[in-house]
Design a protein that fits this description.
The chain is an all-beta fold. Strands 2, 4, 5, 6, 9, 10 and 11 form a seven-stranded mixed sheet that branches. Strands 1-3-8-7 form a four-stranded antiparallel sheet, with no helix packed on it. It is globular, with a radius of gyration of 13 Å. 33% of the residues are buried.
């Protein structure tokens, strides 16, 4: 059973930075597509970013382009989300996701989800 454990969330002022980490275990492989979703209070869960197995392909939702960077360390089975220039509207629970499918449509169809980590950005 694949397990994803997020860490690195917290409270930060607007303009600040945070780095989220997601440690994968229990059957994951470097061929998995990994990503991040988020859910703000009263809103639907939304795609944030994804990365393919080799790290050569990434995808971001428009609202975080230029501010967030997704990366992965396959040797450590870990994916990261570096978040810079944070805004109050980035406040949400952030979920790490993984799937064993190809890179086609990386914004959907994830099989595995972490428990989430809270990110709060104060104005």
């Amino acid at each position: 059973q694949v397990q994803l454990v997020e860490s690195g969330g917290g409270l930060v002022q607007a303009g600040g930075s945070l780095r989220l980490s997601c440690a994968a275990s229990g059957g994951t492989s470097s061929s998995f597509v990994m990503g991040w979703f988020r859910q703000a209070p009263g809103k639907d869960r939304e795609f944030v970013a994804a990365i393919n197995w080799g790290g050569g392909s990434t995808d971001y939702t428009d609202s975080v382009k230029g501010r967030f960077t997704i990366s992965r360390d396959n040797a450590r089975n870990t994916v990261y989300l570096q978040m810079n220039s944070l805004k109050p509207e980035d406040t949400a629970v952030y979920y790490c996701v993984a799937r064993s499918r190809s890179w086609i449509n990386p914004r959907a169809s994830y099989d595995y989800w972490g428990q989430g980590t809270q990110v709060t950005v104060s104005s």
